[in-house]
C-alpha cells in the first residue's frame, strides 16, 4: 500500500524560479523569501518520497487555450520543461511514473472524476517552480519521479473548491489502494492572493491569505465551502489558484502536523506562501 508522507503547499510565481536560476537568492529583494524556505527544505531533504504528485495548472504554455480540461493527469514516462518564451529553465526534465499515473487515472475515473489524459506534456512554471521550492539544487535529476495532476484555474468556469477537495479525498483513496509499497509526497501549488490584470491588477489580501494558510491545516472544509466568486473577490482572479491546495489537503489525513510555513509579500505581483505538512503526526 502506498502512503502519503507529506504535503507541500507553495506558490509558483515564475520570478521565484528566475531568481534561483540567475543566482539572485541572496539579493536584498529576495533573501527574506528564500530564507523562509530553508526549514521546509531541510526537513524535506530528510524525508524523501519514492514518488511525488504535483497538482498544478498550466498557463497556456504546455496546453493551448482552445482546449482547457477541467482536470487532467499526465501518464508519460517523462515531461520536458516548457519554453515559456524566454528559453527553457535550466532545470532537469521530469521523470514520470506511468504505472502510478494509470492506477490513479483508473481509480479516479471509477470514482466519477473523468480526467483528461496527457500522454505528452511540457510542464511550465506552475510545475517547475514548486519543484525548485522543494529542491533548490536538483543536479541532473529531481529527487524522484513525479506525476502531474492538472487543474483549470485560468478559464471560467473553474472547478469549485468543494469539487477540488472531493477530488483530493478520492486521490487519497486511490493512493492507499495502490499495490506498490511506496512513499508519496504531494504538492498543492499556486496562489496566494494575486490578480495580474484588469482594474484590480496588483491586488493582494494578506488577511485572507493568513486565514487560508491557517484553515488549510485545521479546517479545510471551511475553505471547500468558498464559492468561485468569493475566492476571486477575496484572493484575486489568479488567487483562485489556491483551490489546488485543497486537492493536496484532501488526499491527506484529517489531522496533519505543520512542519513549517512562510508568507512573503510581494514576490512579483503575488503574495508567496509555503506550508509544509507531515501526514504522520
Ligand atoms: C505571477 C504569478 C503567477 O501565479 C503566475 O502564474 C504568473 C505570474 C506574478 O506574480 O508575476
Ligand atoms: Fe499562476
UniProtKB/TrEMBL annotation:
Coiled coil: none annotated. InterPro entries: Xdiol_dOase_suB (IPR004183). Residues 9-271 form the Extradiol ring-cleavage dioxygenase class III enzyme subunit B domain. One of its GO terms (molecular function) is oxidoreductase activity, acting on single donors with incorporation of molecular oxygen, incorporation of two atoms of oxygen. This is Protocatechuate 4,5-dioxygenase subunit beta. It comes from Planosporangium mesophilum. The lineage of its organism: Bacteria, Bacillati, Actinomycetota, Actinomycetes, Micromonosporales.
